[in-house]
Design brief:
- This protein is α+β, with helices and mostly antiparallel strands and 215 residues long.
- It contains 7 helices and 8 strands; from the N terminus they run ααβββαβααββαββα.
- The strands form 2 sheets. It has a 6-stranded antiparallel sheet with strand order 3-2-1-6-5-4, sandwiched between helices. The chain has a two-stranded antiparallel ribbon with strand order 7-8.
- Helix 2 runs antiparallel to helix 6.
Amino acid sequence: MNTSPAGRDRDRSNKKLAELARIFYLLGTDCKKNIDIIVAQTCEVFGAACSLYNRIDDKNKSLVVWSSHNPPPDLDDSFDPEGHICWEATIKGSYQPVILPDIKETEYYTSDPYVQKYNLNAYLGHPVKCRNQVIGSLCMVDTRSRKFSRDDVNCIKTLAAALSLEEERLALEQETREEKERYQTLIENANDAIYIIQDGLVKFANPKTATISGY
């Protein structure tokens, strides 16, 4: 064990790297499950009271709790973003981490209704992007004031980047699914016979093929 300040810093950095590696090892092919894993592990890694992934709902102009770990039982799933830290500081701000070791010393102590309601004292968050646009924020909150190290900041940044990758994959999956549905609709409603024959067998035929062929 290193006893010098530089040695202790290296030990902490190595520990954070090991924790991140453990988290990424848990991820699989299901994007939504991966998002839940990342959010849950954010809480565990920081030893926080709660972790949240809040996402913008452009249609309803609100923030939606997309995923959470250990939230208060009466936490709303959707809320007006005005005044909330995740909206004012994280999402509306530049693509930078938001570090609040003592929320009572900031304007959010009065502007964010959840701060006093749940006795929140510390916040560390980072925007989450998809297609180069901020769509939400990953954050951890705590009921005690606490200092955040450079490793802590790098850790939340890495976890937010992992969420961004999962959001990119979700968007691609949605596009692929919609494109497949469009092609399927076109083929099924086509006025021409469309069929696939492979190895002498009909592998696919649209309804018009049966109408024209009588089979």
